[in-house]
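Ligand: zinc ion. Inputs:
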Amino acid sequence: MPTRPRVFVPPVFQTARARRAPDRRASATARGYDYRWQKFAKQFLEDPAHRLCAVCLANGKTEPATQVDHIVPFARGGEKYDVRNCQGLCDIHHAQKTRRGE
Ligand SMILES: [Zn+2]
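Predicted complex:
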């Protein structure tokens, strides 16, 4: 079957997703982010104490938290469902922390 030749797209015209390195991690479910986690995360972010990104807040900004972050990753022994080990982060700060492998 003939394949379409790859067209060079200058990075400036690529979508952010295309520019990013491919995500080679296991699926979210395989990494332990299952239905129970989704429910926990939703409740966590609905709590007024966790509605804002912790990093933005430390920098004097108020950005809504969209992700629940483990302060100590549960892959490194952090407690997954302990609210004391969780903080709300915005997409940007959560992505930065994820890229650093934390
Ligand atoms: Zn933030």
